[in-house]
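Chain A, query sequence.
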Amino acid sequence: MAEMLYRRVLLKLSGEVLAGEQGFGIDPIKADYLANEVKSIHDLGIEIGLIIGAGNIFRGMQAASKGMDRVTGDYLGMLATIMNAISVQDALEKVNCETRTLSAINVSQIAEPFIRRRAIRHLEKGRIVIIAGGTGNPFFTTDSAAALRATELNAEIVLKGTKVDGIYDKDPMSHNDAIKYDTISFSKVLNDNLRVMDLTAITLCKENNLPIRVFNINREGDLKALVQGAKIGTLVSE
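Chain A, predicted structure.
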């Protein structure tokens, strides 16, 4: 077996990835795909914390820009992350992965409350810990939640799986001459205002020397390859 770069990781997935080609909601086929990708590194013995965004269901900031109260919108977004978490939990258990969903919002019928020591114990027992409900507070994104929980759980890296294969100097969807970074510093991300994660998340990772690797989760096998040392995506570090 190849030597693993990491013992414990925080995997942050965009909610849009779960929507698949339909662009909205939860596609069970995509949930199954994500479950198999996560299982591929779980089978290597890596401890996994998993956070899924809510963009496939609801975006609080967009709703606020159209007149909804920002706090109300953010709470709706947190509820959407719980829906995504339960969907992926179901898919993971179908491929024989033991999981626990922990939520920052109390939904005791379907998830445990997020308690740091409990989450760490689940990880130590080899369970995939799916973290829902964001931070439990408005005005914080799931990117910020990922940075916060990764720090709390002593993860060695945040792996951000998106639809893009790394970080570019400008939007690669709009500019054919966009240049991809293989590595980049937190300071440059902040100074150039690159849209990697929100500023709160980047600052928290910077202050705690917690690296981030951005990669395309839609490329089958890339997640497993990068934890085995492949230079995939973009690494953000000091």
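The chain has nine helices and eleven strands. Residues 8-237 form a domain with the Carbamate kinase fold (CATH 3.40.1160.10).
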